[in-house]
Write a structure and sequence with these properties.
2% strand, two-stranded parallel ribbon, mainly alpha, 20 helices, 63% helix
Length: 415
Amino acid sequence: MDDGNDDSITPSDGSGEGDFNPFAGMPLFGDLSRALSGQGPLNWDAARQFALLAASGGDMAGMMTGGGAPTATANIDPSVRIKYAELANIARLHVADVMQLPVANADPEVATAEQWAAQTLDAYRPLFNDLATSLGQTDDVATDASADPMAQMMAGLSKMMAPAMMGMSVGSMVGGLARRAFGVYDLPIPRATPALVVVPPTIDAFAAEWEIPLDEMRLWVIAHELAGHTLLSIPHIAEHLRSLVQRHVGAFQPDASAISDKLTGLDMDQSDPMAAMQAAFGDPEVLLGAVRSDEQLAMEPQLDAAVAVTIGVIDWVVDAVAVRIIGGNALQIAEAVRRRRADASPDDLFVERLLGIRLGADQTARGKAFVQGVVDRAGENGLAPLFTSVDAMPTPNEIEAPGLWLARVAETDLG
């Protein structure tokens, strides 16, 4: 029973031993800790709140003090959904013809940035849980009476706040991505259930910024999403990429003391302490604590190769389709989108550091060069083994030398 007192030692498991309470005498942080704990290695309430706030441009610092709220975004007009369905009927035939594969007949779903963020959190929940579990595998920090009080407090703080910090960081990352996403396949990570979703407000804004006719921009995005949906609906391709990402997120070896050191050294602005905490939670080093493990470094070339070929195939399909159905403006749109990719954001850094997915200009160029090299040597059907054989995924060396890949798949009679 709560007697209203804040004890410095709080029984935790009935064993007679207690955990040091770093929030004794600090009701604000004590309430925050209790509110954001108890949901496992990742606090999903915090993740959702921060995702929606970041997606809508809301005030995170205000939310933490009770004053912020997501900016409401109007639902998409039904006429926009109908227009995307019409354009999808046009693009679908050409994507199927270029890839020589069946393409989903479903109409694309339209979503706001906030809806995209919520769907993405749900879609990748198992992956983010694995990530949080991996990052939480640290040795307990000693909290005996002889320990330095400040070190003791910061160790307790990092332990008690870890699920909330993970939720805040993952939610902020997903919300930030949502503000830039055209659709699902901006992030080339397979979902358990492939989805076809577009974000019309973001697409419209990009078209206006680059002075691209709106229907042409919509067609380009629909072709991109259909190509991504088709490619990542192929079981062996999806499983290969998914398993690499899961291995990456499960291989962290974080250093708990690094998190404590970062928080201890935080320059807390007394006029706005919540804003300072928000900035700290937005720093990947606070969450990660230490450099990547040897296992992650060793698998980086393989994961890079899988991402590069995924981006390369999707871009090649989109370019081929766009030239057919858009014409002269297709190259302008492709160039504008690729410049946008090259403009890395803090959220891109999180994707790279947490999930191992590198999406910069180098990856795009490698993937495009590989696919174009295959097509130049073997024609448009040269990619067929990739779509049909579980053994045809390119190796890191083959990404740089498409002729080697073609020789291997021909020699082994793949596909």
